[in-house]
Design a protein that fits this description.
This protein is of the alpha/beta class. The protein has helices at 2-27, 32-36, 58-68, 86-99, 124-138, 158-171, 174-180, 195-205, 216-220, 226-233, 268-278, 314-326, 341-360, and strands at residues 44-47, 72-75, 102-109, 142-146, 183-187, 210-215, 237-241, 244-250, 253-259, 284-286, 296-298. The protein is built from 13 helices and eleven strands. The strands form two sheets. The protein has an eight-stranded parallel β-sheet with strand order 7-6-5-4-3-2-1-10. A three-stranded antiparallel β-sheet has the order 8-9-11. α5 links the parallel β3 and β4. The longest helix has 26 residues, at 2-27. 45% of the residues are buried.
Length: 361
């Protein structure tokens, strides 16, 4: 009984904090015009997953994006909307248009053989049909999605089986994507595919309607240097999920913790220079996920670890291992809020936007 009371109290506090934050944002003077007047060299935005603890719906997030002065917002899941009716989506687009903000649409796993697939939205083809319609209605140039997770590498036929299933699924909706003028932007997600593997999926499905959602943090989750990941995927980029990573050695291999840009090991000047050469017209979308209490462990000094990773190119792994040798454990900034998760995520996102603005303007 006491556990229930405590749970209800925590829930009440979370909702109250989110409501107060939203009210403060709506009352504050907008900095959007000033921020966008800076004329960033690359459009800057964020993924709603960056502030997931606030449990805001799409209209509140659009208001927040306006206060932050970003150029675009990626809604990376379908549950963010209060309705999927065209009328609701058109009203949301009109709201964003009024602020001068571009909306990008997305969803989760669409590979029918992956454990990450959820049939909530029907079959894989029906799921893609839905997100293409949402993207078209919102004026989004992409429908972001992903194949699966790192589990795909080690079970039920390994990563190749799921990559082939992904290609077959994507081909089924080619006509609808082309008719809608929407690229399906597949993410390198949660340790599933390295850059060269996602490139294979794109090229075999058809780059006329399939591109990449490049995720710098997820690159590190596949024993890959984010820089080399960009060098491979750059020509295919249509969407993005950007953050930094801290990578360091421990006795059995390496640990990886995601963090805000500037707090990890990426050389952002080099990364952005490559970006401007390979995908200069594509947006830089922050997906800030600062999970450091339980960093990912990669015990690559143990032979059994390599099940599922046998085909990783030696050169790419060497770059990742070199980052681990040079790295050190990450700690959050001292002034980061200590208790409220929503406030922590807002702090992390806003700090990340300020950092990127120093590089993009």
């Amino acid at each position: 009984m006491n556990e229930v009371i405590r749970s209800d109290r925590r829930r009440f506090i979370q909702i109250s904090a989110a409501a107060a934050a939203s009210a403060a944002l709506n009352a504050a003077p907008s900095l959007a015009a000033q921020a966008r007047a800076k004329k960033r060299s690359i459009p800057l935005g964020f993924d709603n997953f960056s502030i997931r603890a606030l449990e805001w719906k799409a209209p509140q997030i659009v208001d927040y994006a306006n206060q932050l002065g970003v150029d675009l917002v990626l809604f990376s899941d379908l549950d963010i909307y209060e309705s999927l009716d065209d009328a609701y989506l058109k009203d949301l687009k009109a709201k964003a248009d009024g602020y001068g903000i571009q909306l990008y649409a997305g969803t989760g796993g669409v590979c029918p053989t992956s454990k990450a697939f959820n049939n909530k939205w029907g079959t894989a083809e029906e799921h893609l049909d839905l997100v293409i319609r949402v993207a078209r209605t919102l004026g989004s140039p992409v429908a972001r999605c992903y194949q699966g997770t790192g589990q795909d590498r080690t079970y039920d036929g390994g990563i190749r089986r799921h990559m082939q299933a992904m290609v077959e699924t994507l081909k089924k909706v080619r006509g609808k994507a082309l008719d809608a003028g929407v690229h399906i932007a597949v993410e390198n997600h949660a340790g599933d595919m390295q850059a060269w593997e996602l490139k294979w999926v794109i090229e075999n499905a058809g780059p006329d309607f399939v591109g990449a959602t490049i995720d710098s943090g997820n690159a590190a989750w596949t024993l890959e240097s984010p820089q080399s990941n960009l060098e491979i995927l750059g020509p295919y980029v249509k969407c993005s999920g950007m953050r930094d990573s801290a990578i360091w050695r421990y006795e059995d291999g390496a640990k990886v913790a995601w963090c805000s840009p500037g707090d990890g090991q990426l050389d952002w000047n080099q990364y952005l220079s490559t970006w401007k050469k390979l995908c200069p017209d594509q947006p830089f979308i922050l997906e800030i996920i600062n999970w450091i209490n339980d960093p990912r462990q990669y015990a690559y000094f143990k032979p059994e670890f390599w099940n599922g990773y046998e085909d990783i190119p030696a050169k790419d792994f060497a770059l990742f291992a070199a980052m681990a040798e040079q790295g050190k454990p990450y700690q959050h900034p001292a002034d980061r809020p200590k208790e409220d998760l929503g406030k922590q995520q807002m702090y992390d996102l806003e700090r990340s936007i300020k950092f990127m603005d120093t590089l993009l303007t």
